[in-house]
Every structure is written in structure tokens, then in C-alpha cells.
Amino acid sequence: MTALSDVESKSFVDDAAAQTLSERPAEWTITLKMARGPGWTVKLSPFRGDFGATVSGRPGAFVVAKDAVDRLREAIEKAAAPPVTSAPATPTAK
Q: Would you say residue 90 lies in a domain?
């Protein structure tokens, strides 16, 4: 969650571009479910060398830097990866 809250937008997108982004299929989607109330769905689509983001239930769209999206993707993949288990030590004969 920290990785998501650390992402900063570069700018807002004008209404025409926001409409286009909302209709375009997302390169990837993040769904946040809340303990109470409705969750959010964030759609990220390539946009002028960066990413355009739309958020369900919110008007408009905004631009997020590609490197920020890459860091977010890495954090999510790391959090979703299965835990690494080490193999038990093999005793050596003396």
C-alpha cells in the first residue's frame, strides 16, 4: 500500500484525453478493496511516453511518470511473490 500512496502524478489530463483514456483498454489494472465502503479500480494506460491513470468513481485522469509506474509494478510483484523458503541444511559426514 505504501508503494501506491507514494506515486505522484505529473499533471492532470484535459477532458478529451481523459475520455479517450477511460475508453482505452488498460495495460494493467490495480483493484483496491476496502474494509468498509467501495473500493477503487485504477487503470493505467500508455500515454505520451508515460502512463495515463483513471480511477473508478473519480472524474478525469492524470499522468504518472513511467519510472514511478515501473517502481509500483515491482513493489506489487514483490508483495505478491510466494515466500522464499530455504532448503534444510544437509549434514556432512565427518
A: no
Instruction: Band the pLDDT of 2: cuts 50, 70, 90.
Output: low
Confidence check: pLDDT of 90 > 80: no
Beta bridge mates, 9: 64
Query: Is residue 72, in this structure, part of any structural domain at all?
Result: yes
Q: How buried is 17 (Cβ within 10 angstroms: 0-12 exposed, 13-18 middle, 19+ buried)? A: middle
Chain-centroid distance of CA 55 in Å reads: 11
User: pTM here?
Assistant: 0.72
Domain total in the chain: 1
Query: Using an 8 Å Cβ cutoff, are 45 and 52 in contact?
Result: yes
